[in-house]
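User: Okay, second chain of the day. Same drill as before: sequence in, structure tokens out.
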Amino acid sequence: MDHLFSDLKRKGIHVYGKHNTRINREQEESSLEAIERSRVIIVIFSHSYASSTLCLNELVKILECKKSNKDKYEVWPIFYDVTPAMVRNQKGSYEQAFMNHEDSNVIRWKKALTSAGNLSGWDLQNTTNGNESKFIDIISKEIFNKLVDGPIPIGDNLVGLYARAEQMNLLQFVGSDKVHIIGICGIGGIGKTSIAKAIYNLMYKHFEACSFCEDIKDVVNRDGLVHLQTKLLDDILKDDDLQIPSVSEGVCLIKRRVKGKTVFIVLDDMDNQNQFEALAGHPNWYTPGSLIVVTSRDRQLLKANHAEQIYDIDPLNDEEARKLFNKYAFKNQQPRDEFTECANRILHYVDGLPLALKVIGSSMFNKTLHEWEHEIDNLQCSPNVVIQQLLKESYDGLDTDQKNIFLDIACFFRREKKDYVLKVMDVCESSFATNLRVLVDKSLISVCGDRIKLHNLVQEMGRQIIREESEEPGKRSRLWSPTDVLDVLKNDKGTEFIKGLALDLSSTKVNIDGQSFTKLKNIQLLRIYIGDLSSYTSGINCISELWKETNVRTASGKLEFFSNELQLLCWHGYPFQHLPASFCPESLLVLDLSFSRIKQLWSGSKGRIDVYEEVNIFLPGSRIPGWFSNENDGDIITLELPPHWCYQKLKGVATCAVITPVNNSNESTYSEISCSVKNLHGDLVAGVSLLATDDPNIGSDQIWMWYKRSNPRWRKPDDQFKVSFVCVGINCKVKKCGVKLIFEEDESK
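Assistant: Same drill. Structure tokens below.
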């Protein structure tokens, strides 16, 4: 036993044991406590073992512990100079020993010996033909390998990890007759690795062999896939001498040698197909009852590789976020009252992202209130580098079109409707849907209902990419900050690099130089809008007079230039009566001039609407234009089709609605206005929803005009079709509506 103890200590294993059987009561209690604290318990059965009542009492205690918590304790017998049958049946020296025992515990001791004799262990004679040195080496290696397969350290400042791990209920897969591959998905810094470690610590005891491969992407970049294949097989097989010459050889070894054991493997931070094929492979590689857990930012990678369930990791809730932040920023102390406002600002900024709470919380520890305020201001214009780089890894994996869509969403379209973004970005529906799905699968955005959403820090990551294009705002591709937008438009600093520009009038007034638009030759998106009418405090009496608050300096008293590349032109309170004479709106998809002074949009050939696939126009007014040949009060109109009408000559349909407020309260809002065109059988021919802002209280009559080019569904109407409008909300209604069919002979009109 001394040699075994020494070998285990050399391997760094803490050992408790006794050399004699004559100990006092206090030492006996200490021995029983040591049993309870142990993970691996070795029972050495020798010729004289049954003669010691202390040994027999310890054996009873050991088996009681094993029975009460079988996952915690490993009990391994060593049959030194006796056979398992002698112990199990109490023969030989064991029988003689019991003839000398008169204790009332004899029955319990015999039962314990019988149970222990049936346990799997080592017999010195049968294992190594009596060679003690080899015997000790085999046993110490087995103990070492078992202890290595222990819980993985996660850290001390844990919030919500084990609760989220338990909510997944992966214990349902223990003892299954199938192989299960489970995915865990989420943005960088959301806690996928930490939750995977918590899952491992809860689950590893239920399997014959386990492996946790952490940070696969970085390890592969640094050491290669063969290194990870070697680690995985070493964890499973406990073979230090394993040599893998290539990835393909590693795949063959995993398929051949992992079979036969129920294994639990966690593969953390997978990011491409090659990694999956080299490490996880196919469910048929493994024995039924095995469980493979994979974490990744890429949902599509998981779906494409047999993941039967994918768990999305949500940000921490408000209570959890505050608790985790306090652990780092205040070392679990209750923050002083003067820090509460600053702490709330940070919690809102990080939006429940655990990594950000740790990084920013640690950076704030032991700093003054003034330093806190300074750091928070810095975060608004310069996000933390560690967080920025971690989140940007998902962006770096996108192609050019996907990157542009993501940047447009981050800068302009957060919380907007998916269909509206499709219209504005002028891409074919299938391509946009595919690219949007990639952004969802990469955990960069989410689509809730029909709205596009993204995390605060993911939005900041995208916007920081734009900031890094140039130190000069006028040389960046997208502008959204009121400070940057007004600097460019007021001081004529625009350039051809600007593709999109947005200015929220809820937070600022417009005081710009009209000449600055002449330099925006390639701008595709111009959006000067009221994001929140209830917070607009310019002091005007009526929202329809918003244009009076817009100061645009021009030499001629009118605007001279808009880029012909414009696809979205939204200017609430546009202060001029006409659009620029040189403006050709052939690229225009959405026109919104609500609350403006506009009197005429354009004339001549520029006024043709049939050149567009689809266009929306929203502007002030209370009359249906006379150009619409059919008009009706209310929100429904039925149109008789001309005799012998020909679908092939139909260019499209134009509809118009006058939307009027129900009351003048700023407390009510509507979310959208929709228009549908149906035949008399109720079949949908065409339909659209006009996106509205979260608080678009219109305040005065507005006109919405919509044109849709014809498609094969127009063959459905027979003699009549019906156009209907619906306002979702309680603050507005459709007062009048009109419709006009556009035929080839109308092109000259």
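Residues 666-671, 691-697 have pLDDT under 50 and may be disordered.

User: Thanks, on to the next one.
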